[in-house]
Each structure stands twice: as structure tokens, then as C-alpha cells.
Description:
By secondary structure, this protein is an alpha+beta fold. The protein contains 17 helices and 12 strands.
Amino acid sequence: MDVSVRDAQIRDAQASSGPLIPPAPKVHARPLGGSLLGELRIAREMGRSLVGAYCEEDFNALFTPYSFFGQPGLVVSDPASARQVLTSPNYVRPIKANRSLRPLVGQGLLLAEGATWKRQRKSLAPVFTPAAIGGLLPHFQDAGAGLVATLTGRARANLAEAFHQATLDAVLRALFSRRADAEGAVLASLARRYMEGPAHFNLMDFVSKGADDLTFMDGERRRLGRQWLDAVDALIASRRAAPHPEVRDLLDRLLAARDEDGAALSDQEIRDQCSSMLAAGFETTSRLLFWTTLLLAYDPVTQDRLRAEIQAFPAERVSCLDDLKAWPLMRSVLFETLRIYPSVPLIARTAVARDEIGGHAVVPGCMITISPWLIHRHRKLWDEPTAFRPERFIDQPHPWGIEAFLPFGAGPRVCIGAGFALAEAQIILASLLTCFEIGLASERPVIPIASITLGPDHEPDFILNPIVQARP
């Protein structure tokens, strides 16, 4: 069937059938735990996907106590209590939860704790101010133009791969003033191989007591992580050999950054911060763009509305962050995508002191599980929680004030790069939709699977229909 005919039929069907309900993983009828065999099954399911072990009860309960291989735990889906955990000094990131990511980002802000984290966060704050992000908009526009150039002339494409390359291009431009050339291709390949393999949790991650326990299965993590860090070191060494006379990018700001004692960041610190920005910046944003485009392919009515909004204020006219206010539907679509497909689907904390959460006693060592995936789809917190309804955000002047919306975490460790990622995603998506109508080449459902980030179970081909621009 011709794609344009199929899309017209979808539009007619949507007009009469209500909101889109995108595909989702299986929800188990009953809890999987309660015995050693059940806990092993949970470990197996979560090794495949961190959102693969949820049951029907989880989407109705605000608190679920559990025990996992002898460690007490509590799933917290009550938004106020989740924010209590994420802002309290009584809870820290579990050491073993960092096992799958540390080889890729070292000791950067993403995994640092305590005084080290506070110092790094304060040093990096100037790098992510609105003024600093506004200065990076031309990099995002160049990356969007590069994406369009790559796709022009193609009738279909793997947009998951194309977004990976485009967001890497954007971050490399913003961080190093470099295009995603040969070195960028190496980084893209390493990141994809890592996220699709070693990033997934294994049984040793679940049963280990610390970061360095039972690491005999981590050889591939160490090997790819070493290659990644070596590639980042090479980019930084190239800049030190030929420094810019003025501030052009984020690396210039990192090299100029000083801690509260006036000391410059060490070489390893700069390397680890660059690695964190690269890994978190392009991986999570590429996933956001993929899921958004998938939803728009499922929902061509909303795609048409969004395109009209962009055409009224094209991406090339954006010169400051305030210009992005011309795209309220774009913003709402991205927020609704982050609700349905949160880039980071699970947050874990370990209690270091006695506490009480929602009437549940917490003892030191208790594992607190906060799942944005679960909270964002919770039946007591949202109307039609599994439906794609961007309008739920359209009248929200500040969606971060919605208590049950946690796409970037909450509290002191809320994602420092959220503004960067959203600006990047808006520019790149606008560039794409200006030039193409997007459809899907197959009716096979795309099911989310989760490791460190939320990705698809397969990467579908998208149909690209060029848009004929009207002559002025």
C-alpha cells in the first residue's frame, strides 16, 4: 500500500478512535519474586530489560516492599516520596549500580559522590547556563542540516542510526568544535556496541556487594571502555596542542573552569567530564529523537500539526533559547515522549541512615527503586497513562512542576544537561520535519527495552517522503 494512502487512512482512523496507544513490553499478571527461583527470574528479566519484570500490581501501588537476594528494598512510585529520596542525604547511589557505566565515563559528574560531586557540579554549572547553551545553537543547526543532507534522496532510512550520528555530530561540535568525522565514527560505533551489549546488567551486577566484586564477566566492558576513553583523550590532546584563542565550545569552558579554590580541573577530570557529556549527551538525545519520531510516525495528525508550527518559525531563524517558545507543540510532544519513553527508566538509591518513606520503615542498606517508567505510566497518577497525548503538557507553564514527571530525575542531582538536550532535540527534529514526512516501512511493533537508557527491541526502517517547499 502507498504510504501516503496508509497515512490518510491512519488520520481518518485516529479522528474516530481516540488517542494513540503505542506498543509496550509485557506486564506480568502477578509478581515474579517471593522465592529464590522467582528472584532469579527477576534477575533474568531485568538483565534483558530493566522494565521487563513489572506486574499489574506495580502500576497501581505507590509503595512495594521487596527482598532481593537477601537485600531489603522498596519500590517508591509516590512522586512526593520519590522526590524526598532524591533530595535527602540519607540516600546515595548504590556503588554496584555504577558497574555497567563506569568504564565509559570514569569518575565524572555522572557517577561522582559526596564532596567530589559537589565540587564538580559547581565547577560545571557555568558550562550549562542558558547563555552558554544559547551560544551552542549554531552547532545544533549545523547538525540538523547535516542530518537532512545525509537523508536527502533516500526513500527509507534507519533513523535510530541517523539520529545517533546526528546527535554525536551535535555534541562533538558543541564540545570540541569538530564534526562527526572519522574519529566521531569510531566513538559512535563504540557507544552503540557498549549500549547494546556491556551496558546491560548481568547476574553478577545483581548479586555483587560492590563495584569491584565478581568482575570476571566485565572483560568486554573494560575493553570497549578503554578504547572509548583513549579516543576522548586523543580529542583533548589535539585541543591542547592547538588551543582556541577564544571560547568556542564546551571544552574551552572546561579548560578554563576553576574549582572553589581556584584550581584548574585535572587532565583526568576533564577527560571524565567530556566522556560523561559525550555518552550521556548523544545517547539519551538520540533515543529521545527516535522515540519522538516513532510516535509521530504512528500519529501523522500530530506530525502534520507540528510541521505547521515549525514552518511558521523555521529552525534557521532560531538565534536564542527564547525563540524556541515559538514551538509550544514541539515542547509538549517532547515532554510527552519523555513521559512515555523516559530516557533513564530506573533510578536506584541505597539508604545510609534510618528513615521512613510513606509509612514504611527504611533501614541502612535498603535499596530504594524509583522508576520513571513506572511513575510515568502509573494508573493513579495520570489520565490515560499509556496514551500519547501531547496536549496534557500544552498548558503547563513549567512542566518540571508536575510532581509525577521525572524524566531528568529530581533534587540536587537533576540532570545538569537537560536544557542542552532539549534545545538540541528541538533543533534537529525541526530540521527533519521541515524536509520530510515520516512513516514506518513495517507494521511490526517496536517494543522498548531498557539498560542504562531506553532503546528499541529492533531498529525499524522509516519511510521518508520529501516535502516540496513552496516558492516565496
